[in-house]
Amino acid sequence: MATITGIPQVDLSQFVKGDASQQAAFVEALGKAFTEIGFVGVVNHGIPKELIKKFFEESERFFAQDLEIKDKYEVKNGAGQRGYCSFGREHAKQSNVGDLKEFYQFGQELPEGHELKDVYMDNIYTDELPEFNKTARELYQAFEASGAHLLEAIAIFLGLDRNYFNPHIEGGNSILRAIHYPPITQEPKSAIRSEEHEDINLITLLVGASADGLQVRPLGQDWIDVKALGDGIVINVGDMLQRLTNNKLKSTTHRVVNPPRELWYTSRISIPFFLHPRSDMDLTCLEDCVTEETPLQYEPITAGEYLDERLREIGLKK
Fold first, then answer.
1. d(CA 108, CA 85)
2. CATH of domain 3-313
3. Distance CA 205, CA 282 (A)
4. Contact by Cβ (8 Å): 146, 204
5. Cα 90 to Cα 283: distance, rounded to the nearest angstrom
6. How far is CA 144 from CA 62, 155, 235, in A?
7. I need a labelling partner for 4 at 20 to 30 A (CA). Which of 110, 120, 239, 293 fits?
């Protein structure tokens, strides 16, 4: 059975296939997790197990290639939004030391004639590993579908129309990232595999990593080890959703710590999907989330403006 340790767990099939009472129970459980800890484990999420397994395998093949090959796919002025991003290039916003990771990103693909077709960078596909490209496209679409169900439940919890997020995420600027944390070969300069940070987007969907290391720190609490067992995935609130809800839903600090010294020789791969809206989505705090007890915390900004600001803070955009 799929379980997630350290955080609450919900069953997405209750919402997608359940009756009204099951849906209401799911919405309440999801909302409680996101208001209290900002993280939740999800089982029966609808993302095919074999597709996840294949993308892990293809990712391992890509990162095992010589640096000369990988470097062909890095866009130096692309803010890391497509293709390869070399080891140590990204850092947490409060740090100048690069994380101990490299990654590859795939973005939105739209048909000819779509109004946003020319807005996004084209995806960068590898010549050496066509299955890496194909599997990424399929997994991206599966993540989008599951993410849409979760946002529908979030909208209901917030008292919005259940379809509130749909026009904002259709053709949205989401990112599928394959992350490789290589073996540690010398004493790190103070960096860990991924320094403590919050995600930029609406929600993040993370399939189980190939090794331990993920920790979350809810406000006022100590670090909690989080691990997905079996087929479960981990979902967390991003800064855009926290901002939209005036801190009602929590974008919780998290990190990936280094393994014990005796396991430095091991590597780690993880696959997050950062669900972003269209760049023109207004992130002005929802009226119902602003009260005397919870006064307005944020100035109006669009999703595109906020993304641009954050990419500069983490060193991907100059």
1. 18
2. 2.60.120.330
3. 22
4. no
5. 25
6. 23, 16, 13
7. 239
Q: In the chain, pLDDT over 70 holds for what percent of residues?
A: 91
Please report the pLDDT score of residue 3 as a whole number: 57
| Residue type for position 123 | N
Count of CB atoms situated within 10 Å of the CB of 11:
20
Residue with tokens 């004639």: 113
**21-35, 72-86, 110-124, 295-309: the lowest-pLDDT one:** 72-86
C-alpha–C-alpha distance, residues 236 and 24, integer Å: 20
Please write the tens of the pLDDT for every residue from 223-281: 988 876 677 899 999 999 999 999 999 999 999 887 777 778 777 899 999 999 999 99
Domain boundaries, the chain: 3-313
pTM: 0.92
The confidence band for 205, taking pLDDT boundaries of 50, 70 and 90, is very high
Of the two residues 231 and 42, the one the predictor is more confident about is 42
Instruction: Output the CA angle 188-192-197, nearest 5 degrees.
Output: 150
